[in-house]
Amino acid sequence: MAAERLLEVKDLKVHFNTPDGIVRAVDGVSFTLDRGETLGIVGESGSGKSVTCLTTLRLINLDTADVSGQVLFKGRDLLKVSKEELRHVRGKELSMIFQDPFACLHPYYRVGDQIMEAIHAHDGCGKNEAKKRVIELLGSVGIPRPDQRFADYPHQFSGGMRQRAMIAMALVHNPDVLIADEPTTALDVTVQAQILDLIERLKQDFNVGVILITHDLGVIADVAQKVMVMYAGRAIELASRDDMFAQPLHPYTWGLLESIPHVDQKGTRLIPIQGSPPSLIRVPPGCPFHPRCPHRFEPCDKDVPELVDRGGHPEACHLSIEDKRRLWSEREQLRKKVAS
Length: 340
Ligand SMILES: Nc1ncnc2c1ncn2[C@@H]1O[C@H](COP(=O)(O)OP(=O)(O)OP(=O)(O)O)[C@@H](O)[C@H]1O
Ligand SMILES: [Mg+2]
Fold this sequence. Notes:
The structure is a single chain. By secondary structure, the protein is of the alpha/beta class. Among the domains are: 103-172, no CATH class; 246-339, no CATH class. It has 11 helices and 10 strands. It has helices at 49-56, 83-89, 111-122, 127-140, 146-149, 159-171, 189-205, 217-223, 241-246, 251-258, 321-339, and strands at 5-18, 21-34, 38-42, 65-73, 76-77, 94-97, 177-181, 209-214, 226-231, 234-240. Strands 6-7-8-3-9-10 form a 6-stranded mixed β-sheet, with helices on both faces. Strands 2-1-4-5 form a 4-stranded antiparallel β-sheet, covered by helices on one side. The mean pLDDT is 90. The structure holds adenosine-5'-triphosphate and magnesium ion (MG).
């Protein structure tokens, strides 16, 4: 049976008008998300990952940004629906969790009360019923003795527990889509792994689609079925996790893979990507990655490479597929040789 398509984002563009010029934060991004699937979005800081997701929820100020394209959620374009319909969808059908749980939990109110508030905001069900549901949820996100912890204040929770409480809050209405923006960046490594396990388990228990934003390709390797690599506001490569790791096609993806310890095989050397990402006010002409790309050649500084589908594995680069295969394999050989 075909999976249910929850989200279809088509040619999304988000340009901010600022005193310094137009920031092309998202510049033509398309992707899909099915129920039961985790899409990992990866890229360096400033590549447009958060703006892509915030716009999906229409959480950016449309007065200061030019937004075009479509965000089809179960067929409805969220960029066009009325504010009332949007309020209904947001939080209830599409939920988001952020990097810093403190930004969303108010320090003066008890954790349980804040989650109850989230239930009331939409449902207005009875107090006892809401409390029961919150305790149940706190339990399902792995908070021990949830009936007692219900009355704690945020500062009485550890960082990992606060993130669990945020996840509980995001799940109060049984959403269809859960968007997690760097949910583990502020946590230490063991807690990170627990939170990722939790998100993976909840994906099955709650039967949702998950979008997971991260800098860390190691995280993606563990939990995502599909990966989108972003650079300078564009999707430059999109593939299943298995294809992305077996045969990455874009030189930027190669750079990411080679500079991240998690996915590097033991004994091989980490190689950072030279230079830094461009300002999104002055994106370089041609391929935005060309000033940093060791494989650039004649067309790269002039022609913008289109996203070309290479057997269900779209990517945007001027190199031929034969050259890519050869270059990636040479890079792998070299890394192993240097390490030994
Ligand atoms: N409201 C805004 N007004 C102007 N520019 C913005 C606004 N929001 C984001 N930007 C810019 O858009 C670009 C993309 O930002 P975004 O937050 O999506 O990056 P990111 O990939 O999530 O980075 P990080 O990994 O650091 O979170 C950045 O250059 C940022 O400065
Ligand atoms: Mg971000």
